[in-house]
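Lecture 7 notes: from sequence to structure.
We start with the chain below.
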Amino acid sequence: MTDTNEATVASASCCSTTAPRPEITDTGRHNLLDTAGDETVVCAVMGGATEKKSAEAAGLYRDYEGARYWFCCAGCGPLFDADPAKYTA
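Predicted C-alpha cells for the same chain:
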C-alpha cells in the first residue's frame, strides 16, 4: 500500500480525466485522428474516415473523371490506381 491518494494517482495516469500537461501533449505534430475543425470524408478504398486537409497534405488523394477521392493511408492509392472504376461505382 502506498501513501498516495486516488486523486494523485489519477492525475498521473495517462488515462486520467484531468487537463493534459502542455509539455507532454504539445509535440508540434498534427493528430491525424483528430478530425475536429476539418471536413471528414470516407476513404474511397477502405471506407474509413479521413480528413480532407490531412489527406491532401500527405498526397493521399486522386482525381478521377472530374471528382476527387481521398484515402486513409498510402496503401490505398495504388489499389485505386489499379482499378479506379471499382472504387468509384
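Points to note: The first strand starts at residue 40 and ends at 42. Confidence is low (pLDDT under 50) at residues 4-17.
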